[in-house]
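Example A, followed by Example B.
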Amino acid sequence: MKISRWIQTSIALSATLSVAVLFFFSLGVPTATAEVSDAWVELQGNKMHLLVAGPKEGRAVLLLHGGKFKASTWEKLGTLDVLADAGYRALAIDLPGSGQSRPWRPNTKTFLAGVIRALEIDRPVVISPSRSGNLSFPLILDHPEMVAGWVPIAPVGVDEYAPKLKQSPVPALVIWGDSDPLFKPAMAKTLAASFKQAEVVILPNAKHPAYLDQPKMFHEALLKFLAGLGG
């Protein structure tokens, strides 16, 4: 298990609009370069909305979201552009009851496996922040063969699922904010220890949705992890 801690950089802020804009981009939110399109997937008679970017032949990266967010969060953050520009096929889904997806109650044990089959994508890398851990943990536990990698970001369910994983073969990039008020950063090491191959990245000055506080560092860590997965 490899543990990385990013070096904190200090950026001075001004009240002027021009400086505010410069700060926004200095955080690592890129200008929009990729074509992002709307798509829909149906599961058990329920349609769910997605934002899709990147070449169809690229490795699929399935992006989930936390309870307060939606697929467009990844677009605004620039993650879809970063992935598409690097040659990956990014698919950000509005989970049931979020964004443009209507509310319905899926079976958390089988939901993601069903989504992957419905989307007809081969062994995606799954990015799973916060509450979406309730959906991704069962996938990693029951169907490790269906994913090429997993990027949990302070996910719900560590105490319940980590003991069950028993050195899971799925490559994992465990991301946490060092100032997470909900789940202590020490939980990142606990989770990573449940995998044969895992790296822990602790983002400085970052709270529970750590990727929002340090998008540049998040994107750099993500691209490095994806590149390390090979073909």
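Example B, a separate protein, is given below in the same form.
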Amino acid sequence: MHEKNILPQLYRRTFRPNGVVLGDAREYVPGDDTRFINWYATAKAGVPFVDGIRSDSGADIVFAVDVSASMKFGTRKRSKMALAIDIVEALSQLAKANSDRVGLVLFSDSVEKYLPPRRSGQAFRNAVEEIANSDRRLRTNLPVTLKFLDKIVKKRSAIILICDTFCLASHRKLGLGYLHLLQTKHAVTLLAIGDGNDMPCPQIGKITIEDAESGDAFEIDTDDVDLIAKVREKYATYEKMILEDARAIGVGVFQANTGDSIAKFLLAFFKRRA
């Protein structure tokens, strides 16, 4: 089957697996489907609660996109930011075709912009590019954004967090705490965007590397084979630890690369979430 024809089916299977939408939580009664247990309400009340089922009036999907300076990096088909925009646009079109509501949060070290979920098409690309193309050197503070999402998103939603792999690096424990809290109320997916040259280090002698977000610069000797091997090993270990931490608290984790085509990415994304 052609990708264009199968994507809408995969979308519906992912975001509306039972043809229903979850409503307000209520106390569990024998015979209720245990798949709909609301763990947050259960923990708070001390007795089992389940999400009620209401008529399928549309799902809410909220994209939270990192627009910090590190997202401007990219050496393949596009930058990390450009890939994030393409992903949001593609999923938004599928959501619109299913009469689902789509919202957008743009964040750096603060929440830059919030567009509440709506059915009508929103100018997401313009909103992202307006901030991404600014001259400000934006850093990342994920806990601030997660706290904002927990406060502002009341209805149970699918929250797709799009950032580079190390968005959890700063304030890691605090970020994981807020991510866990959000996961108990919503279906959260962490979509980590990488680039094949995030950790390249070709042997070209001494070079100066500048942190895209902080502006800090340091010199590294790329001809020092032992040093580069240690840096690469530390990078890979830390990346793996961050993603495993997110998986351990029940967050869906998916990785994308700036060289990926949107169609192939969507197919892999839906199949992984199915």
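On Example B: The chain is about 40% helix and 25% strand.
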